[in-house]
Amino acid sequence: MAGLPDEAEVGTGIGDAIGQVAEDAKAYALAQVDVAKAVAAARFRAAKAGLILGVTAVLLAGSALTALLVGLIIALSTLTGPLLATAIVVVVVLAIAGILGARAASSLSRAFGGGA
To answer: Among 8, 31, 48, 66, which residue has the least CB neighbours within 10 Å?
Structure first.
């Protein structure tokens, strides 16, 4: 057949081209995964100091609240005795925690479509 080019003139076949596309797609996907890992690592490094400071602040606030409650018990114990002062402070703090917890549950329920 004089009008058709031979295989050497055409180059690689369709199978080789599809194989090359598949290899290129795999390499691209792996490169995208590497980019995502690098971005996540950079964001974590940037946020790490803030997270450490935030956790430290929460721990210090908890310690201050504990000191405040102990001081309140000591102050009340001069009027009522240590056992009753402890009971009063515990009941009041638990009541406040219960109210805050109920409001938090209600707010989260509304936010996530739980109704009321």
So the answer is: 8
The most distant pair of C-alpha atoms in the chain lies apart, rounded to whole Å, by 116
Task: Tell me, rounded to whole angstroms, the distance of Cα 7 from its chain centroid.
Answer: 58
Note the pLDDT tens digit of each residue in 32-55. 999 999 999 999 988 898 899 999
For residue 73, give the nearest of 106, 63, 65 by alpha carbon: 65
Distance CA 107, CA 115 (A): 10
19: tokens are 């194989």
Nearest alpha-carbon partner for 65 in 73, 54, 76, 55: 73
pTM to 2 decimal places = 0.56
**Residue 6 region by backbone torsions, left for phi larger than 0, else alpha for psi between -120 and 50, else beta:** beta
